[in-house]
Amino acid sequence: MSYTSEVKETSKTLKLSGYSVFAVLDKRLEIGFDELRQRVTPLGFGAEELLPPEPEPRTYIRRAITAWLREIATSDIGLPVELLDDDEETGRKKKPLVREIKNRDKNVLVLALVRENIDLDALGLSYLTNLRVFYIKPKKDKEQPEQPGKLTLTLTPSGATDPATYITDPREQALLISLQKHVDHYAQTYKVEELRRMVKKIIESMSAINMRPDGGVYFVPYHNRDKLIRLKELVEQALPSTAGKNTSILMHLPVADETSSNEQVAGAAHQTFVARADALQERMQRVLLDAENKKRGIRKDLMEKRIAEIDELKQELDLYHKILGVQQEEIASRLTQMQEQAQELIGLYAIGVKREREKARAAAAVAATQETQESESEDEEDY
Fold it and tell me: pLDDT of 194-211, one tens digit each?
């Protein structure tokens, strides 16, 4: 199916300046890492900066436990899974069924069930009231391939439990095996939360401007119509369907290239540019102040990121001034100030590089001295 004709095109009778765009994704969406890359790459959205980051262990383990409980509840007593979901009628979020317990050891996650808004007895899960799940994060080693973390659980309600040495009893072992398969699945799976952020990044990559203070609705300039067509294909076709039907949609309302429409969009765009300039200026000041207080340089990637943000904001401001007449004098003046601050960042980076080189030379000199002394010592022993 082609969406070329659905995304309205400029005609002799109606010239467009762009589109008002928002996406609604099926809340049940989930897809594996590799499968998502295979689906988005042919559409031109496979760049690393557009793909969502992999979920953290605390996120995917919580998801795994919730899915595991649904499986137990429905298989044991056949109750509807909605009892474990949010309240759709009120739209209110239920308090999490799985809570993370504070732990001094930052390398160990501890999660437990809570009895809020969910009647564990009614679900037939009363025997899990005392459940605690432990996950030991793998040690990071750049020279070695990443190792999997260790998962274990206990049905004892309290007391010191060392997850590294704890031995599960037969009942706990059976539960652990059934939970592990869900953890393995969600450790390699994106859910709708990550996919929403990905779609947002893709829209923003189209020189889009947020039209609402709380987000969600964007103006996409007309010259990005081709990307919009491909994004619609991604959202409504390429993303997997649930229950045999894809209910995700990408709305794209044409904005006429006329004075009234352009003025409204330009007003919203100006507010967005001011907010972005405020945030960027605050980040620049924070970096400069931190470097000054600590009397040290800054990292190259941090310097490059801040300079890139200034350049991107300037380019988009120029674009919107050209197509919509967005006021640019005030923001352009602030961008000039930030470009001067960017020169300070470059200077701070240079200071940091110089200090690192001096440290390296000093370390090399110490190592050379030690090597000479050891060599002389060996010569004396031989003598």
Answer: 999 999 999 999 999 988
Residue 50 within any structural domain of the chain: no
pTM of the model: 0.75
Structure confidence by residue, pLDDT tens digits, 116-136? 545 555 555 555 667 889 899
Smallest CA-to-CA distance from 269 within 224, 229, 205, 313 is with: 313
Q: Are 100 and 58 in contact (CB under 8 A)?
A: yes
Buried b (16+ CB within 10 A) or exposed e, 226-261: ebbbbbbbbbbebbbeeeeebebebebebbebeeeb
Q: What is the largest CA-CA distance in the chain?
A: 101
* Whether residues 356 and 287 fall in one domain: yes
Give the domain extent around 227: 16-31+192-257
Write out the H or E segment, with its range, that includes residue 342.
helix 329-382
Question: Are residues 321 and 202 part of one domain?
Answer: no
Classify the C-alpha dihedral 165-171-173-175 as positive or negative.
negative
The CA dihedral of 118, 119, 120, 123, to the nearest 10 degrees, is -100
Residue 247 and residue 160 in one domain: no
What angle is formed at CA 44 by the lines to CA 42 and CA 47, rounded to 5 degrees?
110
